[in-house]
Amino acid sequence: MRKNTLIAAMLSVALASFAWGQSNANGIGYFALEVPANVTITIDGDDGDWAWFDPIFTVGPDEMYEIQKAEVLDKSDLDVAIMTAWTGTDRDNRLYGFVRATDDTLVVTSDVFDDGWRDDDLEIITDANASGGPHDGDGESGTRAEGQQFTMHLPVPGVYETPYGGDGSWWLRWQVVEEIHWMDEFAESRVTTNPPGATTGSTNVTVNYEYSIPLWDYASLDGADNSIRHENEAGQIIRLTYQLNEADNPEDRRTHQLATTGEDGASGNCDVCSEYTLLGADEYDRADGGAGTAVESESWAKIKATFSD
């Protein structure tokens, strides 16, 4: 109750435009920051070109919900930091993300792309125009015209290497028709580990997931030329969900799932996806000295401080 009261009291001060929805695990929504004009993000699994990103807007486990057992995971077992950014049509019009997962024990045993969720694995669920509803819309099963469950998984040579992403880590899941995999061809992704070469059974591992994708308002089986690409603009609210799958034992496989949505079901229905507001470069405090307007860093910090109350 204290958290909700404080958020309501500070809302008018902290935000000029705001994502509000009960599908958000933090109760209020999340933010993607426009990439500054002097920054180019290279998809290499290294966060060196994310130094500009104000850490106030980084999403951690305290702002997420555990779907499988509705229990709080100790950060010594699994910790996560999520940064989301975007560019508009004046640049490459893409969504960018960097997710750092710190895991006590790594499990990556799957050799079936659709079953990567049984391992340590990341899901990125998109509904660019926030239309909601089933991913397939009114189409037949597996077409994913209205929403998509993209996934990232540490590639394992000879075991798990998709044809997509540049490093074999990217895959549109689950049981989709072959024709819709054209969307995967537009993805840039990279998964790296620290220490390098970590694999199943490795302990105290950091897994870095970095990606860049275009968003689609409508995806046709006939390819990009017959689809509607979303145009990113400051102030938009898109539906975007991160789900981090957690496994500690190759026999038991997945035991937990940390998500930005507050309930199960986003993998097939965007009605329960979390919401991200796209903030323009002049609307947030940047590490390079830019001044915030729509969302003041200090106010957002105070709101975030109430999440664990």
Q: How does this structure look, described?
A:
The chain is mostly beta strands and 309 residues long. It has a single domain (2-305), classed as Immunoglobulin-like, CATH 2.60.40. Helices cover 7% and strands 28% of the residues. It has helices spanning 2-14, 297-305, and strands at 30-34, 65-66, 78-86, 95-105, 121-127, 148-152, 170-173, 188-194, 203-213, 216-218, 228-229, 237-247, 254-259, 275-279. Strands 1, 2, 3, 4, 5, 6, 7, 8, 9, 12, 13 and 14 form a twelve-stranded mixed sheet that branches. The protein has a two-stranded antiparallel sheet with strand order 10-11. The longest helix has 13 residues, at 2-14. The protein is globular, with a radius of gyration of 18 Å. Mean pLDDT is 89; it is low at 1-21 and 286-294.
